[in-house]
Amino acid sequence: MEKKVGSYRWVIVALLFFATTISYLDRQVIALLKPTLEKEFGWSESDYSRLVMAFQAAYAVGLVIFGGIIDKIGTKLGYLIAVVWWSTAGVLTALATSTIGFGFFRSLLGLGEGGNFPAAIKSVAEWFPKKERALATGIFNSGANIGAVVAPIMVPWILAVYGWQVAFIVTGGVGFFWVIFWVISYNKPTEHKSVTPEELAHIQSDAEEESSPNENKTSWFQLFGIRQTWAFVFGKMLTDPIWWFFLYWLPSYFAETFKLDLKKPSLELIIVYTATTIGSIGGGYISGLLIKKGWPVFKARKVAMLSFALAVMPIMLAQYCTNIWQAVFLISLAAAAHQAWSANIFTTASDMFPKKAVSSVVGIGGMAGSVGGIMFPWLVGGILDAYKASGSISAGYNIIFILCGCAYILAWGLMHLFAPKMEKVVM
Q: What are phi and psi of 403, to 5 degrees?
């Protein structure tokens, strides 16, 4: 059946996957270089948290800006601009000579990377019917995990042989190669020569009614007045910061609690981030399978997301771990569940809103996640500095893991409150 339908839409998913991989490779570099840069620049945990906050603040702005821009100028050009921007910022980070310099370049990186998810989610909405969107989103979203897996292998080697500056140059430069393939390969399905009539019919099998002649004009003020927007906002605000914690502090957690040497490739980190790949793809597959079995789209998403929220909760037991592999198991489960949650929450945006508003809604929700991502690092830095001063930094991480375990079930409850049936928005 798949051969008869055609499969070029999966080429598009591959492009989105590699862009997301590159994005997370670029942002993960600083976490792996943290011990080296702490010694060279004299950073405290609070100093490092401020660098994370600078990235998150710029990322929040970038999500909103690019969300609106992509809805206006289109996915192809909008994505291209975003990747060129953040790749340039990644390369230029090698020029930083002070903490302020790092903060500046991390802000530029965050601003550009704000374009990734609005563009990718809009691409999925353009190229896939609803029953396949969660799986497609899960596949490209797993690029976040692959980037986090590649980084612990690649960055320590570059650091040991060439130094930290070259690590930023190499990882930042990869994005320019992706741009070439994007320009050659991407277009709207209705305008693409590689899309067969059968595949186009499949893509448009649940096509929306185009009710407005100004289909590319969506008011942010209008979106803020819709309760489904707030369901997406709270779902992202409470859970995105947990993923940022997994990205930016897990290497330090393993190093400080279990004496992991971050100057060598880390099997423990590779396992954690590999598990998240399984979670991302599996999470998208599960809700898609329920839909194929006849479940209503919104019910399938909600039941799947509730199960993922519950799967994060065992991370609260990390405080009782007596060896690193126990911690690796609990954190891998939580991180995989986050990515399964992420694959589905992104899809709820395209489920609830018309295509003309998807990038804007994803931008608003992503901004909310980044606002949480600004506040949580501030809290994490303060907790860890306080417990480090008392000689018990592991106890600080235990408090943070409790917060992580509670975040998703609270987010699910608020999403259900604001969108109990997640009806389709008519605009």
A: -60, -40
